[in-house]
Amino acid sequence: MLIEMFSYDFMQRAFLAGIIIAILASLSGTFVVLRRYSMISETLAHSALVGVAVGLVAGYNPLWMAVVFAIISAWLIEYLRSAFSLYSDSVLAIMLSGSLAVAVIIVSLGGAFNNSLFSYLFGSILSVSIEDVITIAAFGSIALVMLLIFSKELYFIAYDEEVAKTSGVKVKFLNFLLVSVVAIIIALSIRIVGTLLIGALMVIPTVSALQFRVGFLKTVIISLIFALASVSAGMTLSFYFSLPSGATIVLCVLFIFIVSLIANRR
Amino acid sequence: MKFKVPIFDVKNLNFSVKGQSILSNISFEIFAEEYIAIIGPNGGGKTTLIRMLLGLDKPTNGNIKIYGKKLEDFKDWYKIGYVPQRASLVDSSFPATVLDIVKMGRTSQRGFFSSFSEEDKQFVQDAMAKMDVLDLSDKMVGMLSGGQRQRVMIARALASKPKILILDEPNTGVDMVSQKSFYALLRQLNKDDGITIVFITHDIGVIADDIARLFTINQKATICNNPKQALSCQEMSELYGIDAHLLHVHKHEH
User: Fold this and answer.
1) Crossing angle for the helix pair A9-34 and A38-58, nearest 10 degrees?
2) Which among A22, A58, B19, B145 would be 20 to 30 A from B94, CA to CA?
3) Tell me, what's the ipTM?
């Protein structure tokens, strides 16, 4: 059965891209969840959609445009949060609905409401091109290296931002770096998981891993295993039942979350 | 006489929020190996003062120098260990063992690319041994008692080999028995390791015998070089704005 699935080129491409995304989403998701930034993944995904819309209408690579718009949005969120006395969740809500409105207007004006847009909203394993895999691998490597280099600082900031700052950690720079890396990962993920569902892949594996109440490294490893399992199972189900890959991946990770909750009930 | 550069040199410090003065015209120096307590009523500006010393809040005007350098030019923050008020109130679901937390104390000295060296490991072990938390190494920090967490947080601060330790009401959420042994431990760090200790406290009676200097903060600062004298009824009444009475308690041998 598996051999049949991998006999198709598009499935090989989708699995390769999916595995890279699972690794990136779970690693960055650990810091996102611990920093109480869970909603930022939803907001940046909607901002990435503006990039997709611009790409589809103007004829540029939608994935590249998604990366650019997600990074701009991440910086804007971080700036608004630090420069003005605005509640973080309010800034995220404003950016989320604002981005969606801009994306819908662009798509509507450009007459780009079609299957291609649908695949960016919900993810599609059929649509992953070799160009997408190269883009995901290239930007993904940069994001992964950044996360690994700064992991100890990001972990310290997640534990206590002020104590980290007083001990000499460059908190402001690292906050910008984290949201930028998250923006890149989200933009890369929308090909497989889709704009509307990527937040789940970033947040749920970590929240499930946290139920086991183990140290940081073990939490990261468990989260990584959950993300890889969800993406692999989700894409397999998507292939055999002709379902949108994003939705099947999210249902798989939700199942893991429920099992984790029950298994670790106190 | 040998010239000594103060660790902190604070001159004419003022802090106000929307025109309302929180701290007014504060000046003092803190020298190496001092053991200083800061007392004062809630809202009197104790925590604000500490936050300004650490660069977390900017003074409205005035100057702070650390080891002779302007605060904004000071880079060696690892020399200053900080244990905030909420330190023992850790989020119980945070994924951290005691070892994970203490290792954080080495973060800023390791640099971005370096791995955890033998020297880092030794500093972490020393700090944990000093605070008697070595046997808790693999325990989740959320599962510890208030007193144990407090020792872990100080071990984290000690892991950077600080010259000065600043603690903001470190006994919040800690029982009475742990409090006494805690102050003994602080005194030991000061005497044996030469670490300058500055801490905010409300436990005036417990610390009176040990401290070298007492800062009383209530918008203005009064520096007392003879803490026992400062703790008179009149001084306390003025500081806290209530009637204070001195109770002499005699200890009976059984």
Assistant:
1) 140
2) A22
3) 0.85
